[in-house]
Amino acid sequence: MGVVTPGFTGRARGDNPRVPPGQYLTEDFPVLSVGPTPRVTTRQWEFAVVTEHGERRSWSWPELLALPSEKFTVDIHCVTQWSKLDTRWRGVRVETLIGDLDTAADYAMAHCYGGYTTNLPLADLLDGQAWIAYEYGGKPLTPEHGGPARLVVPHLYFWKSAKWVRELRLTGKDDPGFWETAGYHDYGDPWREQRYQGD
Ligand SMILES: Nc1nc2c(c(=O)[nH]1)N[C@H]1C(S)=C(S)[C@@H](COP(=O)(O)O)O[C@H]1N2
Ligand SMILES: [Mo]
Questions:
Q1: Where is region (Disordered) located (predicted)?
Q2: Is the shortest distance between the CB of 145 and ligand 1 below 6 Å?
Q3: What pLDDT, in 10s, does the model give residues 69-98?
Q4: Which residue has the least CA distance to atom 16 on ligand 1?
């Protein structure tokens, strides 16, 4: 990331190869939340992965911070058509949390403090494609952007990046989450403009 293409400067942003079709660039960081911002203290906070067999592994806040983390810089794309380049985060890779849990699940449902849900293929959460992030721009993630911690899955529309994430439930079945039930796409690839069911 952060690659500057020679000759790019000054071209219309519609030509920017880093901006998916139908998106425009924003410098701000808009807040998009369905309901009120849940206020979860790091004392109360807990994150868990639950397999299709009901096996549950959980982490307290100090336990999350003790895991290997990485800084990553990614472009994000909201289905409401804003994209933001080079956002800087710190977090723990999802595969670090899944570890050697015994699972043959193909899907995951993210459950959040506040009740939001979103579904993703488990494969899209692995191999350095997704993180439980707790820093943004070098600072603790603010509550409105999902703090204490949120899922970040930059290669899918940003509604898949569950804020205030509390649990990842691994399952064999691709059940729709909150926006997917309301007609948004099950997968949500911004490069294929998968905004709504049927796209
Ligand atoms: N828990 C929860 N996560 C959520 C949402 C939400 O309403 N609740 N909105 C989603 C949508 S539609 C987007 S675009 C991003 C917005 O993240 P931001 O508010 O940090 O920009 O969070 C996603 N994750
Ligand atoms: Mo969104």
A1: 1-21
A2: yes
A3: 999 999 999 999 999 999 999 999 999 999
A4: 32
